[in-house]
Amino acid sequence: MRFDEFFVREGRFVADDVTLDEMASRHPTPFYIYSASAVRTKYRLLKDQFPAFDICYSLKANPNPAVCRVLAEAGAGAEVSSPRELATALNAGFAPDSIIYVAPAKTAADIERALAAGIYAIVADSTSELELVESAARKLGRPARVLLRINTMERQPEAREVMVGGPSKFGFDEERVVAEAAGRELKQARIAGIQVYSASQVLDPAWLAEHIEYVLKLARRLSREAGFKLECVDFGGGFGIPYGENDKELNLGLVAAMTQKSRDEFREAEPGCRLVFESGRYLVAESGVFVTRVVRVKESRGRVFAICDGGMNAFARPVFMRVRHPARLLNKLGEKPTQEVDVCGPICTPLDCIAKGARLPQPEPGDLVGLLNAGAYGYTMSLLDFMSLGRPAELLADNGGLRLVSS
Fold this sequence. Notes:
Strand content: 25-35%
Structural class: alpha/beta
CATH superfamily of the largest domain: Alanine racemase
Number of helices: 12
Radius of gyration: 23 Å
Number of strands: 23
CATH topology of the largest domain: TIM Barrel
Number of domains: 2
Low-confidence stretches: none
Shape: elongated
Largest sheet: 9 strands, mixed
CATH architecture of the largest domain: Alpha-Beta Barrel
């Protein structure tokens, strides 16, 4: 976990040289604080290990335009899944030929909008989507590059969200794709490769290496059997980050080393083929902290509750995804934890506990609680209008400056 690296300076909470006092004095709680330098660092960590790959940022993780702009300026491409994400990506400065459109329920209007923007590729999940892309391309009179999403038969990883290996709403089943896609009469659309997104939040380097090698072999086989020239292989992503205090950091260097030989052989055989990783959580989760203020502290039948001004309405992920985000008293980082505390919000339901049994120093009214790893699936995954309490602010710290960047 990189909290100490990204946000702690001399025992105090600091984001890109902006202090906690400055954040709290300028913007009421609750709010999200994002560190631009943390985003750049995570992008560089992934790019340095896989320099031959294009890294496409998955906007669903955090579509805030300012966060997107940081990644676009760093050199990332974009993976989008809706018309609004496409518009956000273009406005943020992602080059159209670096954008891939991935979604299981694209409409004709969605596809036409993407083709008109000149994006690199559309990922098709079925023969009906292939036909939809072909129809849209003919209507617009422009070619369309298509990647076939494959529901593979590879070994499933240990992960909460697994998208392959069984029945799935995503993609062509591996054993049927050649029969379903080969020989289709496509005049404007062109099958140019495959996309495989297998799972989310994977921390096992051996499985990730196995996945990369599986997809490399699969891409070449399907290219031969289905009769298309291999221009692009999109491996999806799934790179995890350590949420739990005992989770290990994903060893990207080990993944790279374990797959080096296979990647070199592939590049020699397919020298012009574009290799793509999609990444959302890995790039931005650790760059964000959700900050909420303690309003009241109470004890009830042996448990201590810190009741705060922001809870599941502003940060729903810990409740509904049952993910344990580490909690800190940001204004007391130098104090040792003394007890277990249930950090709760202002919502009128017992579900509204965003950190259960967190080891914290003694909380007091006015303390600022930070939930870590909140840069992905935080703001936009939450019940922002529930109970009409108002929406949390989103702040971006960058090189000593602090900006309100709520979309």
